[in-house]
Amino acid sequence: MSHYSKRLVRTSDLESEVRCSQCDKLLAKIDVREGALTIKCLRCGELNSILCSEEVLIVIMDLEGTILYINNAVVEVTGYTVSEILGNKPSLWNSHMSEDFYIKMWNRIKDDKQPFRGIVTNRRKDGSLYEATLHISPVFDARKDIGMLVAVEVVLKSNSLTALKP
Question: What predicted TM-score, i.e. pTM, was given to this entire model?
Answer without folding.
Answer: 0.67
